[in-house]
Design a protein that fits this description.
By secondary structure, this protein is of the alpha/beta class. 51% of the residues lie in helices and 11% in strands.
């Protein structure tokens, strides 16, 4: 399906990122319907044009309309962008399926690995969508804090699809003078980078919360990249993908930026607060918490060595003391850093 200014667009999920991407499209002049899970929030957004929970302080485009009815949001749309939390994406997609136009372009910007199934979002979509839709399926990822994008700060991301023409359509639709989109064909690498960087950001936050410095953070980012790449290669991704925007780019942003929810959770863990207490005070989702469980289990299944992810799993799910986790990482058997051979083998 060829998109035009007359095409109808829907964004499914009104968190900070979903709202920001919906606003980006609307500011380009496209008519956009934003599906908001919370009925009361949808009503307030329709009245005030502000997402006072997930993106407060920003007045949104008048080209946006809002609904809490999923069928209304999906029906008749030529482009559907899913930005729901990864652990509920399957459920939302299943509910939307009967009303999705078979010729629609479907894009997913959710980042995570599904618990239990251990599937990436691409695998979830390809399990549920008909095979003939795969060439109209794409994934958007990369280093992009919602608040900075809505403020108009220059940002670069990646649109990945098995079909180049699909990736190019997504690139054309989303690109602006401040939001640059590159195309890619390594869906697995792009998705895994966007998922696992949240786990490493938790670890970087723990180190910050413990009072460690830039040396520690640099080590975590670099060795975290190695873990992401090892697991990605096992799943069929390509090593060079992890050196790009969806790998290193997103990893650096999420491990260092003050707007990172996952880093914030890690900082509080490092300060000694309990996970339940931290999460109960948050309105937005820190995807890395549940992705840690999936990433750890997936690495075990594939027999991939991921020491940072393993320590985060033990902190989050086995109550391990964060300082002991750092000590155990530092006291692992000494070895050479032969990165290329390590990633290829």
């Amino acid at each position: 399906m060829q998109l035009s200014e007359q095409s109808n667009y829907a964004v499914i999920g009104a968190g900070s990122w979903g709202t920001t991407l919906a606003n980006l499209l609307a500011e380009k002049g496209f008519p956009v319907t934003l599906w908001v899970y919370e009925t009361d929030l949808a009503a307030r957004m329709q009245q005030n044009g502000i997402n006072d929970i997930y993106l407060p302080g920003f007045t949104l485009s008048q080209n946006l309309t809002y609904t809490s009815d999923l069928q209304t949001a999906v029906r008749g749309m030529q482009l559907l962008l899913f930005v729901s939390p990864s652990q509920v994406t399957r459920q939302v997609l299943q509910q939307a399926l009967p009303d999705i136009d078979p010729h629609a372009l479907v894009v997913c910007a959710s980042k995570g690995i599904e618990n239990d199934s251990l599937m990436l979002m691409s695998q979830v979509f390809e399990e549920l969508l008909p095979t003939e839709s795969f060439h109209r399926l794409g994934f958007l990822s990369g280093p992009s804090f919602a608040k900075e994008v809505v403020q108009g700060m220059p940002t670069a991301v990646v649109a990945a699809s098995r079909d180049l023409s699909c990736a190019e359509q997504i690139q054309e639709v989303f690109s602006t003078e401040k939001f640059r989109v590159y195309t890619h064909d390594d869906i697995i690498g792009v998705e895994l980078g966007g998922s696992m960087k949240n786990v490493i950001a938790l670890a970087a936050g723990v180190a910050d919360g413990l009072g460690f410095g830039h040396n520690t953070r640099a080590a975590l980012i670099t060795r975290g990249l190695a873990e992401m790449t090892r697991l990605g290669l096992k799943l069929g991704g390509r090593a060079e993908t992890f050196a790009g925007l969806a790998g290193m780019g997103d990893l650096v942003l999420t491990c260092t930026g003050d707007l990172s929810r996952n880093r914030t959770v890690g900082i509080e863990l490092g300060k000694g607060r309990k996970l339940d207490e931290i999460l109960s005070g948050m309105q937005m989702v820190a995807e890395g918490v549940k992705t840690t469980l999936s990433a750890y289990q997936l690495a075990e299944k594939l027999m991939v060595e991921v020491p940072i992810i393993e320590q985060m799993y033990q902190i989050l799910y086995q109550g391990k003391d964060p300082r002991q986790a750092v000590s155990d990482l530092m006291l692992r058997d000494l070895k050479a850093e032969t990165v290329l051979a390590e990633l290829i083998l």
